[in-house]
Amino acid sequence: MTSPSSPAAPAPKKDPWDLPDVSGLVVGVLGGTGDQGRGLAYRLARAGQKVIIGSRAAERAQQAADELGHGVEGAENAECARRSDVVIVAVPWDGHAKTLESLREELSGKLVVDCVNPLGFDKKGAYALKPEEGSAAEQAAALLPDSRVTAAFHHLSAVLLSDPEVEEIETDVMVLGEVRADCEIVQALAGRIPGMRGVFAGRLRNAHQVESLVANLISVNRRYKAHAGVRLTDI
């Protein structure tokens, strides 16, 4: 009679801070001539990432790229999407759907990082809008069924991102998505910027409250004349 085999040892748990090497990836930034996109492009390029910024007009994109330096290139949106491994969407909310619809083919198979915050403004200040799909990121996922959509980089100050005198930006970047490996790539990209950490924060269905928090940060920054971000404790 044979003895029963010993149960297999459980696989060791993966260290959540053991993130992939993303230094060789090309990052495209749609909306790279706007404040947020331009700041992200600058910080990633300054950290050594290959960056292409996109705009509806190639000339405008190239002019912005020349101003940023650090090897940043400029291109029309479709070319930017085609040439990039990871594409950050940093376009204004009112052009979000139209831009993504027009680039569905170019973004097919790409890792897309949506950092758009649907906001409204009135005399009381900023307030969150809720898209029909639930969030900007979920709208992106609906419009780009052949892309791998994540959400991140919502709470960063464009002023700090663009300031060459600021060496480190002490903040956390909440990353949301359906595939953990995709989220880890985005977390690693965030971690390339000195002072930042990329933190997994759930699935895309939780993106609305992350996007909405920007309305609160705007109020904080106006009241305290600051450039506040988000820092998560005990991790």
From TrEMBL:
One of its GO terms (cellular component) is plasma membrane. Keywords: Oxidoreductase. Residues 27-118 form the Pyrroline-5-carboxylate reductase catalytic N-terminal domain. It comes from Streptomyces daliensis. Pfam families: F420_oxidored. GO terms for biological process: copper ion import; NADPH regeneration. This is NADPH-dependent F420 reductase. The keyword Transport does not apply.
